Amino acid sequence: MTIPAFNKQINIKGFGIDRYKDGKIIERMQLGDDVTLQQQIGAMPDTGSAK
Description:
Layout: E1 14-21, E2 24-32, H1 34-40
Antiparallel strand pairs: 1-2
């Protein structure tokens, strides 16, 4: 899919979980709202339900 470059700020929500062992991060998981991201960059129509 080709999406033209644009110069605008986007805003998405997400969270991360780190797993520690002996004081060091040994695993990191992150989850972001990819649907909202795609809507903001014009790759997917904005249905209004993600607001």
